[in-house]
Amino acid sequence: TMPKEPAVLHQNILDTTAAILACGIDPKKCFLFRQSLVPEHAELAWILGCLTNVPRLLRLPQWKMKRASQNSEGTVGLLTYPVLQAADILLYKSTRVPVGEDQVLHLELAQDIAQHFNKKYGEFFPVPKAILSEL
């Protein structure tokens, strides 16, 4: 949610890819792709953002904490990031999502958005459930 230098961003992409492969992910058995190359993520985020009210986003603790660290301003990207996360989940019709405790509220937002969308337009998105790890 903060601007990055293009060279740093490119290196971060390479480093993250290397870390994923080092963890044992086999690209012959799963798809690895750069999310930013899939325009449907941003397109669905826009649609879902039109169904999400601002007061709900303002209540999320991550917004409050990060906004405080950004001199009480915060950016639109920071405010709407949970909607992008919901789009990332719902785009693939995910039913189970591994999350840490700090992301449970964002997953609940994705659940609410899916239910709202389904109520308005008919059953389309499964309502994803959290998989919480003890670690």
TrEMBL record:
Superkingdom: Eukaryota
GO molecular function: ATP binding; tryptophan-tRNA ligase activity
GO CC terms in record: mitochondrial matrix
Enzyme Commission number: 6.1.1.2
Gene Ontology biological-process entries: mitochondrial tryptophanyl-tRNA aminoacylation
Pfam family, one: tRNA-synt_1b
Keyword field: Aminoacyl-tRNA synthetase, ATP-binding, Ligase, Nucleotide-binding, Protein biosynthesis
Cited InterPro entries: aa-tRNA-synth_Ic (IPR002305), Rossmann-like_a/b/a_fold (IPR014729), Trp-tRNA-ligase (IPR002306), Trp-tRNA_synthetase (IPR050203)
Signal sequence, renumbered to the chain: none
Classification via PANTHER family: TRYPTOPHAN--TRNA LIGASE, MITOCHONDRIAL
Similarity section: Belongs to the class-I aminoacyl-tRNA synthetase family.
Protein name: tryptophan--tRNA ligase
Annotated source species: Chaetops frenatus
Organism placement in taxonomy: Eukaryota, Metazoa, Chordata, Craniata, Vertebrata
Gene: Wars2
